[in-house]
Specification:
elongated; 340 residues; 21 strands; Immunoglobulin-like; 5-stranded mixed sheet
């Protein structure tokens, strides 16, 4: 039992904490010769603790590269590795400059707890140092007639290499910086700062310039898309003026004002139209009235004859008075008998 207790106590420093009191980014990539800055956040309770940056995949065997309890340089940008703690932000940052490809690997942000019975709190990140070419923006756009700039980045081993700007589709379109490290014509300007960046400026953009291009250094290259927008229209619609008699448009004179004389002539015309309309209306009414009177008279005579027939249905002598009455058939289809 005592041996088990001793074994348990001896393993306590190597047991990782359950809670993550230190955090950082998972991975960082950079071109060879470039720099990185890694942020490491910690719990407020670690504000007064020592922080450190370590190289290795195991905290027990990592190599310390920078600590906050060591004297810091007055020019961190030129140091290989520098560390800065900001308790107010609850974060410390680590900067590594002029990285080589051999420096790729695992690193860790650590907070020293100063207690032999508990392991330090740490967070891991992976640093990738690569050689080649990259761009700040893989797609740039500009308006027709304007200019756009492309920043091409390259690793340290290509610092003395020739830089090229090529239109996709063939090396014959490539423009090279040459030994001077620059090139310029009326439409393109290329400038190499020999520190890891060469800049390409496309001037006076035209719609035909829209295409895919290549930033090239040595045998490495990266694609960039250039988009060109049509120039915004600044013309305004012309203001049309009223047509004059001399123009081809039809000229309409202004309307004449209504005078007393013109009104009198119009009044006589209206009176004549009213009289004619009244006469036509009266004639029409007279025709309709006569038609109705004739129809009524015929109906009364037919009704009288039917009454007489009903009065003497079986006595022909009773209708002797009607023997000499003239009979006319007005409707041949029905052969109605009407007497007069």
């Amino acid at each position: 039992m005592p041996r088990l207790s001793i074994l348990t106590l001896s393993l306590l420093p190597w047991i990782p904490v359950v809670l993550c009191w230190v955090t950082t980014v998972d991975e960082v990539s950079v071109l060879e010769g470039g720099s990185i800055t890694v942020p490491c956040r910690y719990d407020p309770k670690y504000a007064n603790h020592v922080k450190y940056w370590c190289s290795g995949s195991m905290r027990e065997f990592c190599t310390s590269l920078a600590r906050t309890d060591e004297t810091s340089s007055t020019n961190p940008s030129k140091d290989k590795v520098s560390i800065f703690d900001d308790p107010a932000q609850e974060m410390f940052t680590v900067t590594m400059n002029n990285l080589k490809e051999t420096q790729s690997g695992w690193y860790l942000c650590g907070v020293e707890l100063g207690n032999g019975w508990k392991a330090d709190d740490v967070a891991y990140t992976k640093v990738k140092v690569i050689h080649g070419v990259s761009v700040v923006n893989s797609m740039v756009s500009g308006e027709e007639g304007s200019s756009v700039t492309v920043q091409c980045l390259y690793s340290e081993r290509f610092r003395e290499s020739e830089k090229k700007w090529c239109r996709s589709g063939g090396w014959s379109s490539c423009l090279s910086t040459g030994s001077e490290g620059s090139y310029e014509d009326t439409s393109v300007a290329i400038s190499d700062d020999r520190t890891g960046t060469f800049t390409v400026t496309l001037k006076k953009l035209q719609m035909k310039d829209a295409d895919w291009y290549l930033c090239s250094a040595g045998q490495q290259q990266v694609a960039v898309q250039v988009q060109v927008r049509p120039r915004a229209s600044t013309t305004t619609e012309p203001v049309t003026s009223p047509p004059t008699p001399s123009q081809s448009a039809v000229y309409l004179p202004p309307p004449k004002p209504i005078t007393k004389e013109s009104w009198n002539s119009h009044r006589y015309m209206l009176e004549s139209i009213a009289v004619c309309s009244s006469l036509l209306l009266l004639v029409g009414l007279a025709v309709v009235a006569r038609k109705l009177w004739i129809l009524r008279k015929e109906d009364s005579e037919l009704r009288h004859f039917k009454e007489m027939k009903e009065r003497f249905p079986d006595n022909p002598s009773g209708m002797s008075d009607l023997q000499h009455v003239p009979i006319a058939f007005h409707n041949k289809a029905t052969m109605d008998v009407r007497a007069y």
